[in-house]
Every structure is written in structure tokens, then in C-alpha cells.
């Protein structure tokens, strides 16, 4: 009987992870950019489909909608996994799958965004309060410094700290650190430009630009 239960759990987890990856792979920014402004965001800025590039290529409405949709891609698979009470390792696997799908979409042949909004969605499933604080931190950093890449990395870096302070188990904290490392990897070119002083600032008053954005 226990063996049958283990097999059933593996099938459930595999299905959840596959569904999370496929959901994450849906290029929200590409779809929204075309609907809102007729823009193919892949032809602008960094060419990725994340929220900041959509903001710069297609305007604030498209960027905001992309943030919401990308966040929901992270939230729902993890929420469902937690709702049906699978083991915590399975929850983390589902969370990783949706972020991998967003960053390396099968629909876009391995391209995508940088996982920032999707990571916020994952964190919202863990703790809505932490997600709200993180978004407020991101907005404050954007307004203060205008570097979307720096704001994104500092926000994701705050996840493990807030999880630790909030009393979450060590596994959550370690997963938060993992999210931060993925974000650093995805922003490696931005970090080089920040070092060299050539990273473009986010212009909140402009809808379109040809610079290379963070997300």
C-alpha cells in the first residue's frame, strides 16, 4: 500500500511540475505587448519578454499587466501544490519548474524573461505579506535609483532574509537563496554594465526606448 502511495505521489508531483513549467513558458509579455501596443517586445531592448522590457517597449500598461500575469504564473502552481499538501520538496520543485519555464520557455525556444515577477508570485504563495513588502521595496529602489536590475536583485535578495525573520523553516530560506542565485545569473550582463557604469536607468516617463533593460 505504501509503495502505491509513493507511486501516486510521484505521478502527482510530476504532473504538477510539468504543468508549472508549461504555464511558466507562456510568454505573457510577448502576448500583452502585441495586444496593448502591437509591439513585438523581442525586437526591442534586451529582447526578453519580462516586465521591464515590456514596460520600455510597449508602455506602462503593458508592463504592469505583464507583472501581474507573470506573478500569477508563479503563484498558482505553488498555491495548488500547497493546497493539496504535497511534501515541501515537491512544492519547491513546482516553484522551480514555473520559474524555469518563464526564464527558458519551450515556446520561445529557450528564451524568456528573468524570473523576477514570477519569483514574487512564488513568494506570494509562501507569504503574501513578504511579497507585498518586496514589491514596495522594489518600487522604492526604482524611484530612488532608476536601475531596474539593481532593484530586482536587491528585492529577490531580501526574500531569504524576510523568510528567516518571519520564522520560516530553513528549507524555505535556502530556497529563497536559490532564487537569488538564479536572479544573479539572469542579470549577469546587467551586473557587468553596472560595474562599468553603462547600465541604462529606467525612465518612468517614457514608453519606448532602445536601451538594454533588466527584465
Series of secondary-structure elements, N-terminal to C-terminal = HHHHHHHHHH
Distance between the termini: 48 Å
Characterize the main sheet. Answer: none
Work out the helix count.
10
How many domain modules?
Answer: 1
Uncertain stretches of 5 or more adjacent residues: 206-215
Mean pLDDT: 92
Which percent range describes the beta-strand content?
under 5%
Instruction: Give helix % range.
Output: over 70%
Structural class: mainly alpha
Q: C-alpha Rg, in Å?
A: 17 Å
According to DSSP, the number of beta strands is 0
Shape: globular
Which helices and strands appear, and what pairs or packs with what?
Blueprint: H1 2-25, H2 28-37, H3 51-58, H4 60-83, H5 88-103, H6 116-126, H7 128-145, H8 148-165, H9 170-186, H10 188-196
Helix pairs in contact: 1-4, 1-5, 2-3, 2-4, 3-4, 4-5, 4-6, 6-7, 6-8, 7-8, 8-9
Question: Can you describe what's shown?
Answer:
The protein is an all-alpha fold and 215 residues long. It has one domain. The protein contains 10 helices and no strands. α3 packs antiparallel against α4, α6 (116-126) runs parallel beside α8 and α8 (148-165) packs antiparallel against α9 (170-186). The longest helix is centred in the N-terminal third of the chain and has 24 residues, at 2-25. The termini are far apart.
